[in-house]
Amino acid sequence: MLLGVVAGSLLGVFLLIRAGVETEQEPAEKPRPRIERPPPSEISYPGIYPARYEIDAVYKEEPRSISGTQIVRYVNAEDRPMRSLHFRLWTNESVFTDLGGGTTVSSVTVDGERARSSLDGTDFEVFLPKPLTENATAKIVLDFETDIPEIAAPFGHHSGVSSMGVWHPVLAVYDEDGWNLAPTTEFGEPYFAETADYKVRLTLPKSLTAVATGVERNRAEGRSTRTLTYEAESVRDFALAIGEKFERVSRKVGGTTVNVYHRPESAFRAERALDLASRSLAYFSETFGAYPYPEFDLVDAPLVAGTEYSTLTFANLQNTEDYVFDTVVPHEVAHQWWYVQVGSDQFEEPWLDESLATYSEWLSAGDAASRFPDPVPPTTPLNTSVADFPDSYTYQNVAYLRGAQLYRDLAYKIGEERLLRGLRAYVEKYRYRTAKTEDLVSTTSKSAGEDLTPFFESYDVAPLKND
Ligand SMILES: [Zn+2]
Fold it and tell me: Which of 128, 203, 287, 364 is least buried, going by the fewest C-beta atoms within 10 A?
């Protein structure tokens, strides 16, 4: 995520700007067409993926909502039986529920048996009717409805666009510390998920344009609705944007189609956005390893600046100066490597992806060695949890700027080429997986041929353990 850059320092811009309620009348709700469900298949995901999602969803304008059925096939890759599974309902943050948004789950079954569940804010726990043993698979079916609030945010409707970075129940991450159920905070991003495969069928009024993670595989035209089928492999989330008047410009970058979807009033920025996104994607592919997905979508959404999701990024094409916009797009594209491909816990270790996205942004602009020459004061260690930063300003100074300065100074110390070789090795080793600070330190050390732990510690990074 990037909020804004002004006069050489990141502003503590409050992310969520409350929007006035729109009063225009929407077309009446249309009946939902019959959807044929794909046959269940036996799927096993050794190692990397614990889950596969199949979602049939219907988007309605009045009241504005997206609802449907979600099938999750979950493999217990842990060395112990699981008695319950936790899902995150990120839409149930109070900033959204206060405006009438949020997700309710009306029924849950596990392997055909009705299952008990409990909801605590954004934590939705499903109690398995019987323990799921190691390597066994469970099929969880959830019926959900998500009401979309009127707000200019990564989840909300505003200015003719429904932005849905989060909208459906997402399996929480289970690791050596157990379930990751961090609370949400006023700044930073709480989102943390493992990679998964998705098949999503979305039905919406024909008058609207949908943009989604992954690629469109099929479209079926009804009388007044359209059903789009998307597939995405090895992605960390499945984001959606639905626009009333989206226009598109596209370009091919290697094997990837880069699309910019913009509102008509943003047309003045569309070509600049496409240029920036295409150049960034090509540059980061060459620098950190090839972008592995067939499509990348930049969606003009009414946010403060930008927010990243898998193969799809929201960026406001309108509300910034050119020079700010020119930093937002590379930063968000860089997140396709830092967070989307190499996963990290954005709540516990937000510096991991934000510092690399910021440094990548400097590299792509060609001024990484000279940007922000004055050291940011070390007010708190780099690898501090979002919960332990005193405020948004400190968070951005440390996790973004001081973190990026670490890489700039490391490039001075060991040479930029050795640093980039280390970062390529980091991507290669942790692509589609989840990395921690100690993984970054050990991978770059190994690649550099010297122990970089003292250097990282000189920036107050405290590696937790080494390989
Ligand atoms: Zn960011």
Answer: 287
